[in-house]
């Protein structure tokens, strides 16, 4: 059937599309800077983590270990995003302006 992909295949496509944006960001001179590139690269890595851990353990599908149980959000997810946000803010304050 059309669009019969399971969650693992869909998230793999999402990860590829996100990294295509990261790779092509350097061609957009108005928003490209080393800081922006680093932040977007750091945040895009979370799509890889979602593809590997999130889909395997929390979403039911052909390539996962989940059995259709309710999707709990682990406690470390908000903590991790909070830490990433703090690192980005500290890096923004300490960046060198060219």
Topology readout:
Layout: H1 7-24, H2 34-58, H3 76-94
Molecular structure report:
This protein has helices at 7-24, 34-58, 76-94. The protein is mostly helical and 98 residues long. It has one domain (7-94). The radius of gyration is 17 Å and the shape is flat.
Give a brief outline of the structure.
The chain is mainly alpha-helical and 98 residues long.
Key features?
single chain, mainly alpha, 98 residues
Give a count of the beta strands, DSSP E runs of length 2 or more: 0
Sheet/helix structural class? mainly alpha
Q: Percent of residues in beta strands?
A: under 5%
Shape: flat
How many structural domains are formed by the residues? 1
Radius of gyration: 17 Å
Average pLDDT value?
82
**Discrete helix count:** 3
The end-to-end distance, rounded to whole angstroms, is 53 Å
Largest sheet: none
Give helix and strand order, one letter per element, not per position.
HHH
Stretches with pLDDT under 50, minimum 5 residues = none
As a percent range, the share of helical residues equals 55-70%
